[in-house]
Amino acid sequence: MQITSKFTTAVHILTCIEVFSEQMRVTSDFLSGSTGVNAVIVRNVLSKLRSAGIVNTRQGSGGAHLAKALDEITLYDIYKAVDCVDDEGLFHFHENPNANCPVGRNIHKVMDGRLTAAQTAFENELKKTTLAEVVSDTKKIISEE
Amino acid sequence: MQITSKFTTAVHILTCIEVFSEQMRVTSDFLSGSTGVNAVIVRNVLSKLRSAGIVNTRQGSGGAHLAKALDEITLYDIYKAVDCVDDEGLFHFHENPNANCPVGRNIHKVMDGRLTAAQTAFENELKKTTLAEVVSDTKKIISEE
DNA sequence: TAAAGCTGTAACATTCTTTGTTTCAACTTT
DNA sequence: AAAGTTGAAACAAAGAATGTTACAGCTTTA
After folding, report:
1. Which residues in chain A have Cβ-Cβ distances shorter than 8 Å to B9?
2. Of A104, B39, B69, B125, which has the fewest beta carbons less than 10 angstroms from its beta carbon?
3. Does any CB of chain B come closer than 8 Å to the CB of residue A95?
4. Number of domains in chain B
5. A40 touches strand D (CB under 7 A)
6. Within-domain flag for B139
7. pLDDT tens string A108-140
8. Is residue A1 part of a domain?
9. How far is CA B107 from CA A8, A76, B22, B101, B115, in A?
10. Which CATH number do you get for residue A11?
11. What confidence category does residue B145 fall into, taking pLDDT thresholds of 50, 70 and 90?
12. Which domain holds residue B26?
């Protein structure tokens, strides 16, 4: 199992918007070319990012723009925006533990807190990085090429 | 996306083995009944746990037993044993970023360390809990029912 | 030694998720 | 009005997760 590539795609898209949007119109076709991801998927990701208030897009005129300051967008915000994880949480619990078995009817109580703790540790780590850092690292590498 | 239910199934199975194996033979059929998971899947999970040196099973006689002390088995060990995550890591990176784009050819360099850090934070949290604690919590809840 | 009960495993089936594709209406600019 | 774009629905394809069937081989016990 893996976290959907929409997440890294979204980060890539946002980085492109920041790096290129002053010089050119960053369209879904351009982003499709840079990411290697289908343009409809790109629009889909952009749509989710827009719902989350992270980007602005407009029909007709084209070109995506950031809707927030770079340092106000964390990897966690992006991860949440593109629905990497459903409401059930990161772990898929087996669905029919037997309530007639003492272990079966209590395993959820014993495990849930610990599973949540692992998920939270993961998400907190994503909160530590902002798009500002990603963009700054990217620009630095580009300038040194 | 979610982490395969084989993980929680495995924890459930191991807890059952510890709780019940003194009084009875803990067969894959019994475990299937307690977990609500198909007996072949149970045997499959047991097979992976055996490969990882966590349980012993025997053809013919039946009945699974722990191969290690309870406090030497962490949730991380179980998670690794049942192959929750492949070698690529927790994140699925979009596969064809465009090397002709300055962002496309560098996005991996910028992101990989941060993705690994998030995965590591997650795994380290799983290392904090041993099966001893899971079993002890379970027995406590059962005794208070 | 035969029967019964169990494990190990392969092959296949089913369902769900992810990703891609086609299509087209609606919008904006020129 | 034409050209280029977004938004979104509907469908297709591929892959992953889970379940099912089937059966060979092991162990115990009668």
Report:
1. 94
2. B69
3. yes
4. 1
5. yes
6. yes
7. 999 999 999 999 999 999 999 999 999 999 999
8. no
9. 9, 17, 54, 10, 12
10. 1.10.10.10
11. confident
12. 6-144
